[in-house]
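W.,

You were right to be curious about this one. When I first looked at the sequence I had no strong expectations either way, so I just let the prediction run and decided to look at it fresh. Below is the sequence, 164 residues in total, followed by the output.
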Amino acid sequence: MRILGVDPGSRTTGVGIIEVHGDRVSPVYYGAIKAGTGEFTERLGIIFSGLQQLIKEHRPDQAAIETVFVAHNAASAIKLGQARGAAVCAAISCEIPVSDYSPRSIKQAIVGRGGADKVQVQHMVGILLGIRDPIQNDAADALAVALCHQHTSQTLARMAMMQG
């Protein structure tokens, strides 16, 4: 199974695809869609089409996208929400189911505590996926979203087996 992780941003959207074989997880692709600083609606189009292209190329089975949080101001949150919407629509248009995860739950799944910083997330993503070279922030965050989904899905499946 392949999982697409997305860390939405109005200028840079992190993307990461992992492949899961039982308990083994390996990176397939990671990087960023650079939407630039042009007209906002054009940037949304770049995010949408860039994700569609990656989905067609790498054929993930599921997508996981980080939810929006209000950090600086409402205007930033609205733009981030629209970038996230473009990502969700790209996955749905390619008939891929989408799951949502909060930044706190992603950090909890990857580092073990919801208040972890970006450096800790990057470090753990590298360890979990066997990536020795430094990973760009947005790509590491996207891989963390994919890993969070994989971990959550596995845990829910185990719980279902124990109950049934």
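Here's what jumped out at me. The first strand starts at residue 2 and ends at 7. And, maybe more interesting for your project: The chain has one domain: 2-163.

Coffee later to discuss?

I.
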